[in-house]
Amino acid sequence: MCAIVTWFLIAYGQVCVFLVMLYSWEQYPIHTIFNFVVFESFSALAITSHLKTMMTDPGAVPKGDCTDETIERMQLLNGHTPIYKCQKCSSIKPDRAHHCSVCERCIRRMDHHCPWVNNCVGEGNQKFFVLFTMYIALLSMHALYWGVWQFVLCVGAEWQNCSSLTPPGTTLLLIFLLFESILFAIFTAVMFGTQISSICNDETTIESMRSRNAMMDEEERSRNNSWKNLQLVFGGPFGIRWFNPLANPFVSRPTFEYSV
């Protein structure tokens, strides 16, 4: 339901654009075209990021693989490294994996289960979730600007030729758009900042709640590198692929050891 609400709110913005915003085309063609391109670009990127977050495996651990044979084989390969078993899904629990009671699976580097994407946010799809929050925040801020600009334009023209709707209908449409934009701009901007902070600190939301950093030794702390952590999640050195919701989100840690 939360995912459907997300699509509905983006669709509502499209309704406002086509019924109200584009009516200023004749008076302000450059301004209208520019804002239309920006709005549609942010909308497409937000929807793509949302779908990728929903449909990408967050890092689910296979169920029921914690058999005696598997444990013996792993002990031979890893020596005396302790092996942990999840009592809820009977899987071998990798380091930093957590069991999700909603998905009923253990998720590698699980951050949280998000109802807005109907999926867990973990090792495999965290990049897409970060991009989703960023593009929704940008889309909301842009809609807020454009909505205020259109409202001022309509008031100045005494509601003449500024919308395909009646003045009361236009007013209600713009007021709800502004309310929606403010609400989601704040909410998603906070989520985006929280995610970036967690990535830089190499700490998931669950780990921060359990004070994992308090148990990390000094050697592990000294190896933490915010820039490298961002590269690991976004898939390479800083570039256009960081902002591309279709690019591979995860690269193994040894790939970027040179960046320390």
From TrEMBL:
Subcellular location: Membrane
Pfam families linked to this entry: DHHC (PF01529)
Membrane topology: Multi-pass membrane protein
Transmembrane segments: 128-152, 172-192
InterPro entries from the UniProt entry: Palmitoyltrfase_DHHC, PFA4/ZDH16/20/ERF2-like
A molecular function GO annotation: protein-cysteine S-palmitoyltransferase activity
All residue ranges annotated as the Palmitoyltransferase DHHC domain in the record: 85-211
One CC-aspect GO term: membrane
Domain remark in the UniProt entry: The DHHC domain is required for palmitoyltransferase activity.
The protein, known as: Palmitoyltransferase
Source organism: Caenorhabditis tropicalis
